[in-house]
Amino acid sequence: DRIFVVAQAFYGNRTGTEIRPENMDAFIWGYVDPKFAAHIKPDRAMIRVPDTDHLVIVYDRNQEKRRREECARLKEEGHVCKPLAFIPEENIELYSRCIVCRMNHDGTFASLEKGDGEKFVKYLAE
Q: Which residues lie closer than 8 Å to 56 by C-beta, 6 or more apart?
């Protein structure tokens, strides 16, 4: 009942871990235990990894908006925020926590498989 994913900004970057698909939103918000995430209002979004059929980067639009607002404030103070994921082919940058996993044709999430890493790792910050 768990799937293997790679997470950005959770235990570090490019970190492999297992999660329950039904707890994905809580995990993306930073909660290991979903019971503490009852207050979140998820707005999950997915970006297909270029040149793949099943790989997706999953993030939350609300978290992304908050992170971009935080980065704008930090920029005013002279700091630089670097994206956690960057897909130049789509001109997409993500600054919030995200995960990479497989998505089946029926929309369900599945574990990453051997060889998937080489297809997506270049899009993730170290």
A: 46, 47, 48, 49, 100, 101, 102, 103
What SS3 class is residue 18? strand
- Give backbone dihedrals phi and psi of 121, rounded to 5 degrees, phi first: -60, -30
N-term to C-term CA, the chain: 29
Say what percent of the chain tops pLDDT 90. Answer: 90
- Contacts of residues 102-110 at CB distance under 8 Å and 24 or more positions apart, as own/partner, are 102/3, 102/54, 102/55, 102/56, 103/46, 103/54, 103/55, 103/56, 104/54, 108/21, 109/3, 109/21, 109/24, 109/58, 110/3, 110/54
pTM > 0.85: yes or no: yes
Show Cβ contacts of residue 24 under 8 Å, excluding neighbours closer than 6 positions: 44, 58, 99, 109
